[in-house]
């Protein structure tokens, strides 16, 4: 699918899940949602979140692969778009009660950008839906942010203060990504505060 088609498809109604097999599907431990936010043409005066929308919910391995392979690949997006994979019932917003007291680990993609971004994204998705984190209950979801200067992935956590949980998640994620680059943690309160404009 071409980039324009992807963006158009994601901007339309809820993305239907095409059944990929007639065999008994493999149920995931929990339900997940893909979200999408294309801020490349923001409407003037629109509040943050105006273009954020839930794209698809799934709870089987087969549906995950069907969705991921057809559309949810970061390198196919235009700059200033975000794709999210969050637990069903959790919105990818600071305001969501599950996220409100948390923060995010961020991995900035520096080398070989698009390929590295897609690889890191897929590794992270598989680790999440495969429940590979010991602290899985403390994770809200992950965001891939496609930007002109540098793409990044952010793994959102429920807590901003439980150091043992945060370090467990951060170390595991870094090992899964198999990178030597530093990843950094920011709590959502700091993200809010550091962005005042007049
Ligand atoms: P961002 O997209 O998380 O940061 O937030 P990034 O990607 O470093 O910045 P960018 O300029 O490259 O996009 C960017 C801005 O979006 C924030 O400063 C807020 O104004 C707004 N924003 C982002 N998030 C995740 C939220 C949110 O959850 N709630 C609200 N109200 N605003 C948000």
TrEMBL record:
Gene Ontology CC terms, in alphabetical order: eukaryotic translation initiation factor 4F complex
The entry's keywords: Disulfide bond, Initiation factor, Protein biosynthesis, RNA-binding, Translation regulation
Keyword Nuclease: no
One function term, GO molecular function aspect: RNA 7-methylguanosine cap binding
Pfam families linked to this entry: IF4E (PF01652)
Entry-linked PROSITE patterns: IF4E
Name of the protein described by the UniProt record: mRNA cap-binding protein
Highest taxon, organism lineage: Eukaryota
Organism from which the protein derives: Brassica napus (Rape)
Single GO biological process annotation from the record: response to virus
Recorded family membership: Belongs to the eukaryotic initiation factor 4E family.
């Amino acid at each position: 699918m071409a980039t324009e088609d992807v963006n158009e498809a994601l901007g339309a109604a809820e993305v239907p899940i095409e059944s990929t097999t007639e065999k008994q599907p493999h149920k995931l431990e929990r339900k997940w949602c893909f979200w999408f936010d294309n801020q490349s043409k923001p409407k003037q005066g629109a509040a943050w979140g105006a273009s954020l929308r839930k794209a698809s919910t799934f709870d089987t391995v087969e549906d995950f692969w069907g969705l991921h392979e057809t559309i949810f690949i970061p390198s196919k997006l235009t700059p200033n778009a975000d794709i999210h994979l969050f637990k069903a019932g959790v919105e990818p917003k600071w305001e969501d009660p599950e996220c409100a007291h948390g923060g995010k680990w961020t991995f900035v993609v520096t080398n070989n950008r698009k390929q590295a971004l897609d690889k890191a994204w897929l590794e992270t998705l598989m680790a999440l839906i495969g429940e590979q984190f010991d602290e899985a209950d403390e994770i809200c979801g992950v965001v891939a942010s496609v930007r002109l200067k540098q793409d990044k992935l952010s793994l959102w956590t429920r807590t901003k203060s439980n150091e043992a949980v945060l370090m467990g998640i951060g170390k595991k994620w870094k090992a899964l990504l198999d990178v030597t680059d530093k990843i950094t943690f920011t709590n959502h309160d700091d993200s809010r505060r550091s962005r005042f404009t007049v």
